Amino acid sequence: MEKLKVMDLFAGAGGLSSGFEQTGKFKVKVAVEINENARKTYEMNHEDVILHKDITKLKYVNNEGETIDEFRDIDVVIGGPPCQGFSNANRQQNTLISSNNQLVKEYLRAIEEIRPKAFVMENVRTMESEKHKFFLNESDEAELVKLGVEPAEEHIKIGKSTSYSDKLRDFLLNAYTEGLDLTPFMINKDLMSKLNTLLKHAKKQSSKDLLNFIQKETNQRYFIKTISQQWLDQHQEYWDSLYQLDWADLGETLKNLMDGNTEDNRSYTDKLENIIEAQKVIHKISEVIENKVKLFDIQLKQQDLEITIKSFNVFNYIKRKLADLGYVFNEDKYIFNAAQYGVAQERRRLILMGIRKDCLKAESVVTPKPLFEDPSEYNKIYDAIGDLENISPGIDVKEDEMNKDSHRPLFGSPLNVYLNNSDKIYNHVRTETREVALKRFQSLKEGQNFHDLDESLKTTYTDHSRTQNTIYRRLAYNEPSDTVLNARKSMWVHPAKDRAISIREAARLQSFQDSYKFLGSKDSQYQQIGNAVPPLLARAVAEGILESIGVNAKEKLKKILLNEVKSENTSKEVNTSEIISLQANV
Question: Is 83 a residue of the active site?
Answer without folding.
Answer: yes
